[in-house]
Specification:
The chain is an alpha/beta fold. The protein is 46% helix and 14% strand. It is globular and about 70 Å long.
Length: 514
Amino acid sequence: MKRLWLIVAVLLALSVVGAGAATRTLRLEIFDRGNVAPGVLDKGPPAKWIQQAFGDPNDITVEWVIVPRGQEVAQLNVMMAAGNAPDLSFTYDAVLVGSYVGAGGLADLTTYLNQAPTLKAWTGADALSYGTWGGKVYAIPGKRQILGISGTWIRKDWLDKLKLGLPKTTKEFVNAVRAFRDKDPDKLGDKLVPIGGGFAGGPDINIMYSFYKPSTERDRAGWIGPTSTRPARDLAIPGAKDGLRFCNALQNEGLIQKDWALWPKNDQLNFPAALANGYVGAFENNASFLHAYNHIPTLKKNAPQALYVPIDPFTNAEGKTPKYVYNPIGIFNIVPVFSKNADLVVKYLDWMAHVPNMVKIIYGNLGQHYTLNEEGIILPKQLTGDDRWEAGNIMDRVIILNGRPYDTIDKVIKAQILPWIALDTRYTTNTFLTHYRQLEKDGVPPTRIANPPDSLNKLGPMLLDKAEEYIKRLIMAKPSEFDAMYDKLLQEWLDMGARQVKEDMLKQYDAEHK
């Protein structure tokens, strides 16, 4: 594969021989998460301002390459192989980045980074170490402020109707969603969904982590998945069988949303529609799903009685509620080896690292688009039409920061949720402070291997994809078939490379921790 990268690089180099010193075009990736109107991502106010403030003074034409979030890995692989990936590409998948590094597919950014003092200081040595292989910087990670990833919410109004308290254990959670199914508090009939979402992208993370046996950092060095932000995809983790059997039981009791196995990965239609109409009793999803995806005002309109509250019910044998949490980095910002604009990418990120530029990209102009409260927290105005400053998902635009430009975590959380709680006063600041604190309670971070073994780089993405396929089959199986199917699929998965990868990961961890 390394030869492929080199051939592509040479061909592209030849294609520009003899070109004059014309304006350079800088192609920047941006995710489409399906939550903004067409044209906003590449032609909206932030895109125009970036062109005016960064592009024009530097004789650069900024071009946006829109990639659906749910297809980002697949599309990035296609673009890398075709030699047309954006100059600034990115992914959350550390294993994928490692595979590109191993194949010679990424540009060495070390020299350019040393000429970008603001970016280097902003990112910090700890975060930069996650983008360094063999002493060279191949990725500039975004700095992550909130480490929790996945939270659980439940219908408080349904619990109140049924005179049930907030579930504090796995057993109480199951009893609550069974009561939703059997008592149907809002008389929804076939529309009722006790647990929303299904497992189209893999099993619920918090459920699985509650079944995993207690682990050491070294134990987790052999887990395939967490380092690529695809946790709960390792069939061989001690306790995984029990966790998948539990999910299978939920499925066979009719507690999971129907037809989830037919949905595309990262479904943006079926579950969100059920949630928006007040059909869902409980769900687990990413940290900002309820507020950042516009569900609060939509629920208030479609199902004004519906009120969700955060819970942390999935207990292990020790009474703890372990859950996957991130390392202190977000996305990996990378430059394909065939790009001729690695210097411009780092120049752009260095420009972005000035906090006033971050604020402008995210929020627009003080007074026109936002005000400040007494704590100095930015409050976006509720504007419409051409008056809006709509950045899309801000973490996809200000990609060196996974969070908000504030100096305390509480301010970061408040900044994320204040605009949304203003739309429904039943959701308070304390609601979301509780939620975000629960996300990190008893957190289990992935173990970092500075130089992942070649086997992980080569086989990791395939093994994770295959694990998702097997997990879906296991959850959909008849209970009587589960044990034999699990044992068979586990051996297949180990034999196709997972056993070797896990052994190599542990060996590499030991070598790095002598």
